[in-house]
Amino acid sequence: MPASFIIKDVRTLDPTTGVDELRDIFVAEGRIEATPPSDAQVISGHGKLLIPGLIDLHVHLREPGGEESETLETGSRAAARGGFTTIVAMPNTRPAHDTAETVGFVLRRGTEIGRTRILPSGAITIDRKGKELTNLAALAGAGAVAFSDDGTTVQDDALMRRAMDVARDLNRPIMDHAQDNLIEREGGVMHEGEVSKGLGLPGIPTFAEERIIRRDIELAEATGCALHIQHVTSRNGTELIRAARARGISVTGELTPHHLTLCDEDLDPKNASFKMNPPLRSRDDRDALEAALLDGTLSCFATDHAPHSADKKARGFLKAPFGIVGLETAVGLTWTHLVRSNKMTAMDWLRRWTTEPAKIIGRPHPTLTPGAIADLTLLDVASPWVVHPNEFATKSHNTPFAGRTLYGRAVATWLNGRLVWRENGF
Ligand SMILES: [Zn+2]
């Protein structure tokens, strides 16, 4: 039976009710209670911030097929340590999430591990090759909460239109990694601009993203399917999304902590942990992303947690695979950059990690009101910490943020009222 506990004297933020208050929180049988349960463990929350567990719509867990970089077990630990109680697993595993069997495996294994709620996505096309639709209804039936070919993009307009028609009927969003293949095929490794020219590295231009965002918006308008653009990186991309939302089209976009806090000028070409796809863009793009986050055009954060083993990332900037880990630095980066610097309120920050992503995948609104599931994260936002990748729970250490001093980290995380992460000394 799950334990009963009381978190005393804690500042609580409820993103659904908008209430920010100092109070005690009661938990029994995995749910928030209105009154203190008997025989409850008492935990002091003094000086801390208690929030509903965070949701990350974009996580690569690598299992099945890439267990040298991450497993469902290590990825779950990293999520819990990062303060996440719900994560959406991307489909680019081997095999891909293109059958009910693989989707069911990820869902089942996540529940068995029980450290975070793993919600699988389903692949749009078989083996993510962009040629033939998967059985989207079967994937949804097996637990897929969204459809994506993330890592690649369905290039065929007619095929994408059919996917959106089916996804709409299944009441699932299409999440797209928006990148035009004609451009990708040129072998770019970073943003195409002055910095790539100076370094002599092949670039990926922003219009590779813009072309697909424009196409996807047209298809979403035509089909009525809910569209979610993953890891938006360009000023023009944000403008397309802003205009489409103003016209009432169902389109949302996510922003990663690294595209928010870094630009191509920060890139160290000797360190492949600065290599990700889409790449770190120009300073102007970065500024536009921040503005789009603040005005709600980009309604949520997502990490694009993409672990790669050290030997793969040691191949050098040209040959190393794309991607960086993100689950354990996400709170610190976004809190420090936005809330600590007074650009955003704590409540708005929290909504972008909870209620907004929940809406996109049709999950219950995260809240601290009695009766709610006790998915909880206790944050320390007052004391600084330094990013030491060797302390990560994820199996991989590929981060460009090593050595950074940040504010905001989970000191404890509960899933269904069960403690799944506790910092040493707490
Ligand atoms: Zn992607």
Question: Would you give an account of this structure?
Answer:
The protein has helices at residues 72-82, 100-113, 136-141, 157-170, 181-184, 194-199, 207-223, 235-246, 257-261, 283-294, 310-313, 330-339, 346-353, 355-360; strands at residues 5-13, 20-28, 31-33, 41-44, 49-52, 54-59, 84-89, 117-120, 174-176, 190-191, 203-204, 227-229, 251-255, 300-301, 376-386, 405-415, 418-422. The model has no long low-confidence stretch (mean pLDDT 97). The two termini are 23 Å apart. The protein has two domains: 5-50 and 371-422, Urease, subunit C, domain 1 (Roll); 53-360, Metal-dependent hydrolases (TIM Barrel, Alpha-Beta Barrel), CATH 3.20.20. Strands 1, 2, 3, 4, 5, 15, 16 and 17 form an eight-stranded mixed β-sheet that branches. It is of the alpha/beta class and 426 residues long. Residues 150-151, 177, 230-231 line the site of zinc ion.
